[in-house]
Amino acid sequence: MKFSVERDVLTDAVAWAARSLPVRPSVPVLAGLLIETNDSGDGLVLSTFDYETSARATVPASIHDEGKALVSGRLLADICRSLPSKPVHMSIEGAKVVLTCGQAKFTLQTMPVEEYPSLPAMPETTGSVSSDAFAQAVAQAVTAAGRDDMLPVLTGVRIEIAGEHISLLATDRFRLSLRELGWNPGTTDAEANALVPARVLADTAKSFTGSDVQIALSGSGSGDGIIGFQGEVAGGSRRTTTRLLDGEFPRVRTLFPTEHKTVARVSRTELIDAVKRVSLVAERNTAVQLMFDDNGLTLDAGHGDEAVAAERIEAQVKGDPITTGFNPQFLLDGLGAIEQPVVELAFTLPAKPAVITGVPDLDGEKIADFQYLLMPRRLLS
């Protein structure tokens, strides 16, 4: 194996392929990054796989000799980041890989290639979606995904495909996100669902830029199936697959109420700033109180002889006055995921969840492609 490649192209590809390497691999070779070269048109191929998630980056390179080598992925990523802005040359010398860049030279010990598992094949493409739209949608959806590995089903994002529409749902039991977007299905009657690890989905979605993302799904939608994503990037192409989570995602769509008794609209940035200020005095696991009435919105936090804070901001309130409270960080997460300048908060009862959506202005129609449902917290008396 012997090749030459541009430093920035190699650095980006190695960093992307190595991002999902396990911290404590079950076998040593799973900490490796597989380097392959061939003259068939693929050029330089960099791969990682931990039996759950695979990554494969293809970059243009000048191939002098075909071959393959397995080296420590994290070490190679650290080395590439430190290299000067000059072409990189890499070759195999005995049981070692030699990397030179300008006056810098590194010699890396190789791992046994024959012990490295074969990457799973990419499933048949189900459809494609704009990379920018997909990245935005996933970033909003994962806001509500759980982080408790004791509840693995809730650490995933449910992808529902129905014809020309995709829905992304996530929940950690205290909040729920629903993001809907259009895409280009392989067939107009395409219908499928998948429960994808939220962390993998988030990392994958933001790594594709400037082109459509091909989405490929195989299996029953959970457990025994895999989902794949593939797209072109500056300096090559990238492909990743991951095993779907096993288990039944809760039926959460019915949690969105069809009617509301109180609807309030408020500047998103003003509300974010006010929540951040007021929550400074909120004790751990206590709520920030929100009181909506004809005079606007009053926020307060703190209790008794401890520090307290209160702030009033302008709000357009329609319907009954209402007082409720939320976990301030969960509220900020939802507000931060909305991109419109105004947010609408819709309520039924103080003890029932609120639905937060984006609005272009105080009198405009709400944009319902992203909905964030948030459970209230009990207020201290």
TrEMBL record:
CDD domains, alphabetized: beta_clamp
InterPro entries per record: DNA_clamp_sf (IPR046938), DNA_polIII_beta (IPR001001), DNA_polIII_beta_C (IPR022635), DNA_polIII_beta_cen (IPR022637), DNA_polIII_beta_N (IPR022634)
SUPFAM superfamilies named in the record: DNA clamp (SSF55979)
Domain (DNA polymerase III beta sliding clamp central): residue spans on this chain: 129-250
Record's subcellular location: Cytoplasm
Presence of keyword DNA-binding: yes
DNA polymerase III beta sliding clamp C-terminal domain ranges (all copies): 253-363
Highest taxon of source: Bacteria
Recorded GO MF terms: 3'-5' exonuclease activity; DNA binding; DNA-directed DNA polymerase activity; identical protein binding
DNA polymerase III beta sliding clamp N-terminal domain ranges (all copies): 1-120
GO CC annotations, alphabetized: cytoplasm; DNA polymerase III complex
Role according to the record: Confers DNA tethering and processivity to DNA polymerases and other proteins. Acts as a clamp, forming a ring around DNA (a reaction catalyzed by the clamp-loading complex) which diffuses in an ATP-independent manner freely and bidirectionally along dsDNA. Initially characterized for its ability to contact the catalytic subunit of DNA polymerase III (Pol III), a complex, multichain enzyme responsible for most of the replicative synthesis in bacteria; Pol III exhibits 3'-5' exonuclease proofreading activity.
Subunit structure of this chain's protein: Forms a ring-shaped head-to-tail homodimer around DNA.
Similarity section: Belongs to the beta sliding clamp family.
Protein name, per record: Beta sliding clamp
Upper classification of the organism: Bacteria, Bacillati, Actinomycetota, Actinomycetes, Propionibacteriales
